[in-house]
Amino acid sequence: MIELGVRGGDTTIPLLEAAKLNDSILYSVDINDVDFDVRDDLKPHWEFIKSDAIEFLESWDSDKTVGFFYVDDWHSYEHVKRELEIIDT
Questions:
Q1: pLDDT, tens digit, for every residue of 56-74?
Q2: Residue 33 CB: number of other CB atoms within 10 A?
């Protein structure tokens, strides 16, 4: 799973619960640092990447399968459009 936009973790924590249940990894991407704590049992399922979302997506290894994207970062039309274009390739 990939989450674009973290902020206070309101969505991150439920996504991490799902990652734990599915024995998967949540890659959370934000240009800013996070300011919340993740429970110890969820930490093995989380990787935080401090990066611009578009730069992250452009560098993503396309051989890695992603089953879920959550896009909630910068809300400008051009930014989201570019993210979706990259995701769709």
A1: 999 999 888 899 999 999 9
A2: 8
Rounded to two decimals, the pTM is 0.92
Cα–Cα distance for residue pair 45/22, rounded to 1 Å: 10
SS (H, E, C) 53-89: HHHHHHHCCCCCCCCCEEECCCCCHHHHHHHHHHHCC
Token pair for residue 24? 């998967």
- Cα dihedral 33→49→36→80 (10° resolution): 80
pLDDT tens, position by position, 32-52: 999 889 999 999 999 999 999
In this predicted structure, the answer to whether residue 89 has a pLDDT above a threshold of 90 is no
Residue 73 CA to residue 54 CA, distance in Å, equals 10
